[in-house]
Amino acid sequence: KRRIGRGALRALPYILLATFALVPTVSSSIFQSLSCRHFGYDDSDLTGVEQTRSFITTDLAVPCGAWDLYGLPNAEYGEEYVRIKTLAAYLIFAWPVGVPLLFGVLLYRIRDSIARGKPSDLSRATNFLHVDYRRSFYWWELLELLRKLLLTGFVLLIPQEHTLLRLLLAISVTIGHIVLLLVAHPHTDPWTYFFAVCTSVTLQFTLLAALLPK
Predict the structure, then answer these.
(1) CA-CA distance, 174 to 33, in Å (whole number)?
(2) Which residues contact 188 (CB under 8 A, 6 or more apart)?
(3) For residue 185, what are the CA distances in angstroms to 29, 49, 52, 115, 151?
(4) Of 131, 74, 80, 97, whose CA–CA distance to 26 is shortest?
(5) Continuous segment of H or E residues that includes residue 78
(6) Please, what sign has the CA dihedral across residues 107, 108, 114, 120?
């Protein structure tokens, strides 16, 4: 048990780094599988009106529902769509929900060690999560992760036809993040703090630029 524990502590920093780097991209792909992209088509010969068809964003060969590529009822496509949605639901609990939960549990376990300034084996193994922040803001990396997941994943739960709402939500989150950074000043290194503010402001201008065509 001791050997296993020591081995787990040695591997933990690499696991945390890998999950932190992968979770935004993986989570975005998961949420995109739940997102449907709508296309207009002219069916005036049959109905006299223009209609739309929806397809899964990550695979435009799969309709969102039990219809085939021509808009006709097809049970096989319906079953495939249900399978994709079910798998995506499990993966959401494993990645965009499970990883922040893991980080939160680890930070909760080491809170006393950080507060006393006496590192434990676990706090040393999880330095990646808190070493860049002041003691009172040891949890800030979890907040950063939740912000990234909201902007790259959870925002995709808003239907595509409401992209303006997506942008407004992202802009609101980014403004709130900038305000929190300026008020809290959580970083120990001034240059890290400076670059954190700069990247958040740059993201804000990018979102505003994306808002202009809307």
Answers:
(1) 25
(2) 132, 133, 134
(3) 32, 57, 49, 18, 22
(4) 97
(5) helix 75-94
(6) negative
CA atoms within a 13 Å half-sphere pointing along the CA-CB vector of 41: 13
Q: Could you tell me the pTM of the whole model?
A: 0.88
**Gyration radius of the chain over CA positions:** 22
One-letter amino acid at 165 equals: L
**Are the C-beta atoms of residues 151 and 167 closer than 8 Å to each other?**
no
- Are 109 and 36 in contact by the 8 Å Cβ rule? The answer is no
Round to whole Å and give the CA distance between 197 and 182: 8
Token duo for residue 34: 């739940």
* Enclosing H/E stretch for 209: helix 190-211
Q: Are 100 and 146 in contact (CB under 8 A)?
A: yes
Helix ranges, 50-189 (H): 75-94, 98-109, 111-116, 121-125, 127-130, 140-152, 163-184
Give dist(CA 87, CA 33) in Å, integer.
10
14, 44, 97, 144, 150 from 24: Cα distances, Å: 17, 42, 11, 11, 9
What are 141-193's pLDDT values in tens digits? 999 999 999 999 999 999 888 889 999 999 999 999 999 999 999 999 999 99
Which parts of the chain sit beneath pLDDT 70? 42-51, 67-73, 75
